[in-house]
C-alpha cells in the first residue's frame, strides 16, 4: 500500500547521540505535506545519563547507559502511546551526528526491533529532527533556525529542499563551552550543566567580566572564550579580584559567559535573517531552553518586526519524538534505510539531507 | 580450529551462541553484522550454523581474530554487550511478548 495514502501513519523513533536516550511514538494523519496534515505526539519518554560534577560524559559509559535503559524506555513509550506493534509503520533511529558508541548502541536496538516486528528502518539526521520538531510544535512558517546544543551550533535556513548552513561554530558548540565551563566550577550536571549555569547566572550581574567576543563573519568561535572563562574561574578560586577591584562570584562568571556567548549567537542569527529576508527565528536544541537566550533573541527579532519561536524542554532537549517525526516525514516520501545500510556516523552535515517532504 | 589465521592476527576466539529458533538467530546476525569493527587489527566473522545433527540454523557463530590478546578481549567484550542488548530486546519486546502484556493490561 502507498504509505502516503494511509490515513493514520505511526512511527517509533529512537535517539541516543549524546547522553540523553529518548524514545517517542508519533502519529501523522491527513495528506502528507498538505494543510490538512496533522502530527500528534503519542508518547515521548527520555532518560538522561548524568555524570558527577566536574566531569563530562564519556562515550563508553554513555553507550552502556543507553543499552541499560533502552528496553524499559521502549516498553514505556509503547504503553503510553497505547499502540499495537501492528499499528506501527516504521522504526526511526538517529544515524548521526553525535558520539559513535552511544549512536551505535541505539542503532543495534532499533535494528533488532525492526527485524523482530517486520518493520522498515529510517535513518534520521539529528539536526533535521530538531528542526522538523521545532517547526511542527511552533508552526513557524519560514524562520531562520538557530540550532544550539552541547554538540552543535548552526544557523540554518531552508532553501530548495535543503536545510542550508549559513553560519556555525568554527570549533566547539556553545553548549559544549557552557558544559565544560560548568566542570571548572564543579557545577552539578543534574538535570543539565547548562540549566544550572542559567539559574546561577540569575544571581549574578553585579559585574560583567571581560571575555573575548568571537564572531567571525557569519561564524563564531567558543574555544577561546572557554579558555578565558576557565582562567577567570581559577583566578576567582585563588582569591583574585574582578576588574573593579572587588571580588567576583561564580554567579558573576555564569552571567558574564551567558551574556557574551548569547550576544554572539544573536549577532550571527541576525546576519542570516538580513541575508535571507526573514523576520522569524526558531531556536532548537538543548541550549534553546535557556530563557535568557530566548529573551535576547526576542529583543533582536522585535527590533526587526519579527518574533522568536522556541519549544519547551520536552522538545528542545534531545528526544525520540523528533526522530520519529522527521523519520516519518521522510518515510512518507518513500525514504527507506535497508538494514545493511543502517550504520551511524559521527559527522553528518545538516545539508546532506534531501528534504523531499517540503517544496 | 583455526583455518587460515593470518600471521599478524594470532589471537583468536570463536563463540557459538544458541538461540531458541532460527528466526531469532537470524535477527541477531542481521542486527550485529552491520557495524564494522572499529580497529583494523581486529577481524570478525558472523554467521548462523546448525547444531550438530540438526537442520535449523539456530546458533549464532562469531569468529574473532586480533593482533593482540588485549584487542581481542576489548572486541569480544564489546560484542557481548551488544549481543546482550539484542537478546534483551528479543525477550521483552518481541511482538508476541508485547501482545501478551498489552492483552493483560486490557483484561486487568
From TrEMBL, chain A:
A divalent metal cation binds at residues 126, 130, 147, 318. It comes from Thermothielavioides terrestris (strain ATCC 38088 / NRRL 8126). Gene3D superfamilies: 3.30.420.40. Its cofactor is a divalent metal cation. This is N(6)-L-threonylcarbamoyladenine synthase. PANTHER family: TRNA N6-ADENOSINE THREONYLCARBAMOYLTRANSFERASE. Substrate binds at residues 147-151, 179, 194, 198, 290. Binds 1 divalent metal cation per subunit. It is found in: Cytoplasm; Nucleus. HAMAP family: Kae1 (MF_01446). The keyword Transport does not apply. GO terms for biological process: tRNA threonylcarbamoyladenosine modification. Belongs to the KAE1 / TsaD family. It catalyses: L-threonylcarbamoyladenylate + adenosine(37) in tRNA = N(6)-L-threonylcarbamoyladenosine(37) in tRNA + AMP + H(+). It comes from the Eukaryota. GO terms for cellular component: cytoplasm; EKC/KEOPS complex; nucleus. It is an enzyme of class 2 (transferase). Residues 44-324 form the Gcp-like domain. The keyword S-adenosyl-L-methionine does not apply. Its EC number is 2.3.1.234. One of its GO terms (molecular function) is tRNA N(6)-L-threonylcarbamoyladenine synthase activity. Keywords: Acyltransferase, Cytoplasm, Metal-binding, Nucleus, Transferase, tRNA processing.
From TrEMBL, chain B:
Pfam families: Pcc1. Keywords: Cytoplasm, Nucleus, tRNA processing. The keyword tRNA processing applies. It is found in: Cytoplasm; Nucleus. It comes from the Eukaryota. PANTHER family: EKC/KEOPS COMPLEX SUBUNIT PCC1 FAMILY MEMBER, EKC_KEOPS COMPLEX SUBUNIT LAGE3. This is Transcription factor Pcc1.
